[in-house]
Each structure stands twice: as C-alpha cells, then as structure tokens.
Design goal:
single chain; 322 residues; eight-stranded parallel sheet; 8 strands; 46% helix; binds glyceraldehyde-3-phosphate; lyase; deoxyribose-phosphate aldolase; Aldolase_TIM; deoxyribose-phosphate aldolase activity
C-alpha cells in the first residue's frame, strides 16, 4: 500500500516501565490559575487572527467519526483537507509560494473508511502531504477484547493509515493498574510497527483526576507513543486547557528524563478560532513556538475548519475594503 512519506518515518521507542515517572508535583489551583491566565492573554483580532487561523489549518486532523460515514463524505472531507480555500481567496494574504502549504495535516476516520480516504488522497496526489489517521482499539470506549483491538490496528495500517489513534484502557487506569495500561499500549506500539505513528487517546474526561491524566500521559510515553491526545470527542468532557497544561508538563518532564520527544493532540469540542488560538498560545508559552508544527502538535476536530473559513473570509473581505 502506497503511503505518505511527508514525515520522516521515525517512531518513538518503547522504554522500560518505571513507576517513578508517574509521580507528579502540581496542585489543581495552580493548574487552573495558569491555564486561565494563558486563556485571557490569547485574544487576537484583525490580521493577526487571520494569520493564526491559517496556521491552525495546517495543524488540523480533519475528522469524521460518525456511524453514517460513507465513501462519499470521507472523499469530500479529504478534498476539503487538501484545499480548504480556493487559492484566489488567499492571494492577498498569503505569499504565492506558500499557498500550496495551506492544507490540513491529516484526515481522521474509522478503520473501515481508511481505504476511501487513501483512494481520494491518492487521486489528488496528496498522500505525501496529508496523513491518514485511523482511530482504533475499540474507539471510543475501548471496551473490547485485546485481540480484536490489536487486529484493528493492523487492518487500518494495511488499508493505508499512517497514524493510529488508539484509546487507552480506562478500566485499568481507574483501578490504578498503570503497568496493565502500559503493557497494552506496548502491544499497540508493536502493532503499528514502523509503518504508523502511534497517538494515544487518554479520554481525560473519564480519568477522574489530573493526577491520573499525568500518569496516563507518562505511561503512554513510556510505551512509545508519538503523540498523546486528550479525548475521543465522545466523552462528556473533552479537551480543556488545564488538562492540556498537565499533559504538556508530562511531555516536558518526559523529554527531560529520556530525551524522547512526544507530540500533543487536543481533540473534542474545539470548534472555533478563539479556542484554537488559546491552545496555540498555551503551547507557544510552554513548549515553544517550534512545537506548533504538524509533527508535534495537532487539533483533532470535526467542526473547527468551518469557523476558520469564516474568520479567513471575513478577514480577506476587510482587506479588500481597506
Ligand atoms: O479526534 C477527534 C474528535 O473526535 C473530534 O471531536 P469534535 O467532533 O468534537 O471536533
């Protein structure tokens, strides 16, 4: 199966389980205070808002995860990911040489729809530019036997997925069996092999505490995750800035202890440019501006591109009037 080679295909290594990595040292009021102050400082308007909105496009995993997904709507999603705006629209705001870079980072679909995405992206010559992410392992609940959860990964990779978004076993996490969570994610890492990046969904809204969010982040990174992702988009509480901050602290500490670099993917409920800018501000002010690239940061979102399009069109219209 022909696949994208946009990203150099280096995957993270599985490291030995070490319970000392799970110890955290933060207080909830501190987390909320910092997240709230970052959120307040992230308001931008006018041309800056358009620039940030265009940056956000390049970080989106454009997602459809619905029971009624069909080959046609997945194909339309892929076309939109390739060309979110007609090139003439952006002529006044983007340098001509950069227009080709204004596309989504990936499309994200169920395993059974990967072949449809692959077909369309191949047809448009975009397999090298846009990754195909598949959710797997009994998404969204993970409440299935391990054997079939692992088989889903192989199925999606064989169909052309280059990124696998797995869900962790919340049952094991909630009873404190972190070694059990680690062991499963290690097998998921092995099932991806070097053919696909592994993104691990923590389902933070079901983990019960920020300490558990930190532990789950560490366990997944030890197991070899390339990205840690907040949510499936199906939990009652999905991506929030405080949770993002705790995951970022885990990423920073993990890098300090092991040298291994792991990306962040907030997902679920990120629907407008204002939210996207708040997340990008959070990342910029903690991990640094260089983290805002598709290899290290993604938005998992089904509706964000609609608001981005609105903001960009309004911005371009203002420029034309000026
Ligand atoms: O992984 C992506 C999420 O499922 C998308 O969630 P959303 O539909 O709330 O944007």
């Amino acid at each position: 199966m022909e696949r994208s080679n946009k990203m150099e295909f280096k995957v993270n290594k599985t490291l030995k389980y070490d319970a000392t990595f799970l110890k955290s040292n933060f207080s909830l009021p501190e987390v909320n205070r910092i997240a709230s102050s970052i959120s307040k400082s992230s308001t931008v308007t006018g041309d800056y808002e358009v620039a940030w909105a265009l940056k956000a496009v390049t970080l989106v995993d454009l997602t459809t995860l619905a029971g009624d997904d069909t080959a046609s709507n997945v194909s339309r999603l892929c076309v939109r990911a390739c060309l979110p705006f007609e090139p003439q629209l952006l002529e006044k705001v983007v340098e001509p040489s950069l227009l080709k870079d204004i596309h989504c980072a990936a499309v994200c679909v169920y395993p059974a729809r990967v072949a449809d995405a692959h077909k369309t992206l191949k047809q448009y010559g975009k397999l090298k530019d846009i990754s195909i992410a598949a959710v797997a392992t009994g998404f969204p609940t993970g409440q299935y036997g391990l054997k079939t959860r692992l088989e889903e990964i192989s199925y999606a990779v064989d169909a052309g997925a280059t990124e696998i978004d797995i869900v962790i076993n919340r049952q094991l996490a909630l009873v404190g069996d972190w070694k059990g969570v680690y062991d499963e994610v290690v097998l998921m890492r092995q099932a991806c092999g070097t053919r696909a990046h592994l993104k691990t969904i923590l389902a933070v809204g079901e983990l019960g505490s920020m300490e558990n969010v930190y532990k789950a982040s560490m366990v997944c990174m030890l197991a070899g995750a390339d990205f840690i992702k907040t949510s499936t988009g199906k939990e009652a509480v999905n991506a929030t800035l405080p949770v993002g901050l705790v995951m970022i602290w885990a990423i920073q500490e993990f890098k300090r202890l092991t040298g291994q670099i792991v990306g962040l993917k907030p997902a679920g409920g990120i629907r407008n440019v204002r939210d996207a800018i708040a997340w990008m501000t959070l990342v910029k002010s903690t991990l640094g501006m260089h983290w805002l690239q598709p290899e290290l940061f993604r938005f998992g979102a089904s509706g964000l591109l609609d608001d981005i399009e609105k903001v960009v069109r309004e911005g371009v219209a203002r420029l034309k009037q000026a």
